[in-house]
Amino acid sequence: MNAKHRILFVCHGNICRSPMAEYILKDMVEKAGRADEFEIASAATSTEEIGNDLYPPARRTLFKHGIKYGYRHARQITMDDYRHYDHIIAMDENNLRNLQRLLGDDVDGKISLMMDYAGKHRDVADPWYTGDFEKTYNDIIEGCEAFLKAFL
């Protein structure tokens, strides 16, 4: 068995974008028959939603697309996460700034912006403000597919 690829998705509250990315990438690697090669999780840069489950419209969007998800608790990223994960993928520029504030300099080059993998230096659409969970879903699909092509 190959060494595990450890991936942590990060957004502001860990109730919409980052857990959607977590479940979408888990679904992709499971369908590819490679789930045992991955450890995939998500976290927040803020403490605002700590302990809260996946936001209901995000859950409905995943369900609509046949993506399995489970009950979970939002949590904030830690230095232990930085040491543990190989890739820490932020959903937007604000997340990148908050990660630097929380973790300091990215001396190991682990932190990246999700849409950069798809060749688009921009944020993943934030459904908390837009209400458009389908756009967010499509951004995450594009970013996850490109991530897998870049690293596997």
Describe this entry's structure for a reader:
- The two termini are 14 Å apart.
- The model has no long low-confidence stretch (mean pLDDT 95).
- The chain has one domain (5-151): Rossmann fold, CATH 3.40.50.
- It is globular and about 40 Å long.
- Helices cover 42% and strands 14% of the residues.
- The chain has helices at 17-31, 56-64, 79-84, 93-103, 127-130, 133-151, and strands spanning 5-11, 38-44, 87-90, 111-113.
- The longest helix has 19 residues, at 133-151.
- It has 6 helices and 4 strands, in the order E-H-E-H-H-E-H-E-H-H.
- It has a 4-stranded parallel β-sheet.
- It is of the alpha/beta class and 152 residues long.
